[in-house]
Specification:
The complex is a heterodimer.
Chain A: E1 4-6, E2 11-14, E3 19-25, E4 32-38, E5 45-50, E6 55-57, E7 60-65, E8 70-75, E9 84-91, E10 97-99, E11 103-108
Parallel strand pairs in A: 2-11
Antiparallel strand pairs in A: 1-3, 3-8, 4-5, 4-9, 6-7, 7-8, 9-10, 9-11
Chain B: E1 4-7, E2 10-13, E3 19-25, E4 32-38, E5 45-51, E6 57-58, E7 67-73, E8 76-81, E9 90-97, E10 101-103, E11 107-111
Parallel strand pairs in B: 2-11
Antiparallel strand pairs in B: 1-3, 3-8, 4-5, 4-9, 5-6, 7-8, 9-10, 9-11
Classes of the chains: A mainly beta, B mainly beta.
């Protein structure tokens, strides 16, 4: 089993739709979690951290479920500019961070 | 916000030569930096963890004698790809931790 797993997609949704991604992790001792966004041929950029209580930033909502060992990202009212690959990042023990394979999202007009 | 500068952004080299990539944290100190490699349409794969003042920790399957890492100061880590081969052609990215992980802009290496 991979340490961090994501549905690779692609997700192809119309503008304005709501879309959600999940990411599962294998190590229950994992300490912190992030969602990154990566545009084609660019470096990943931090989208948001994921807290146990769940957190929201505008149209984006991230949640963590430690019991089931997954994190989620919800995007509401999607924009064309949201098209990108979304990477789930898990900080495991000893500061080792692992990336998921990424979920490709394409928003169509 | 935290800035990580990576240089060069792209390089083409001949097979058998060595290439050095620099990663600098511009406005914070980083005792630990990470080096990743990304092949087309694949995710970032952690190659090694660079520790200031000590040896780097390499992931399984990454040759430490081929990918030399030096972290001589709190703001600079370097990755040297020695005796590069075409299969080493990839996108190399560094990152450093500062309230999350900030990435350099990446280096696209092409070995011909």
């Amino acid at each position: 089993r991979k340490e961090v797993e994501q549905d690779p997609g692609p997700f192809n949704v119309p503008e304005g739709a709501t879309v959600a991604f999940n990411c599962t992790y294998s190590n229950s001792a994992s300490q912190s979690f992030f969602w990154y966004r990566q545009d084609c041929r660019k470096e990943p950029k931090l989208l948001m951290s994921v807290y146990s209580s769940g957190n929201e930033d505008g149209r984006f909502t991230a949640q963590l479920n430690r019991a089931s060992q997954y994190i989620s990202l919800l995007i509401r009212d999607s924009k064309l500019s949201d098209s990108a690959t979304y990477l789930c990042v898990v900080n495991m023990v000893a500061s080792k961070i692992i990336f998921g394979s990424g979920t490709r999202l394409s928003i169509r007009p | 916000g935290a800035v990580v500068s990576q240089h060069p952004s792209w390089v083409i080299c001949k097979s058998g030569t060595s290439v050095k990539i620099e990663c600098r944290s511009l406005d914070f100190q980083a005792t630990t930096m990470f080096w990743y490699r990304q092949f087309p349409k694949q995710s970032l794969m952690l190659m090694a963890t660079s520790n200031e003042g000590s040896k780097a920790t390499y992931e399984q399957g990454v040759e430490k004698d081929k990918f030399l890492i030096n972290h001589a100061s709190l703001t600079l880590s370097t990755l040297t790809v020695t005796s590069a081969h075409p299969e080493d052609s990839s996108f190399y990215i560094c990152s450093a931790s500062n309230y999350g992980y900030t990435f350099g802009s990446g280096t696209r290496l092409t070995v011909v």
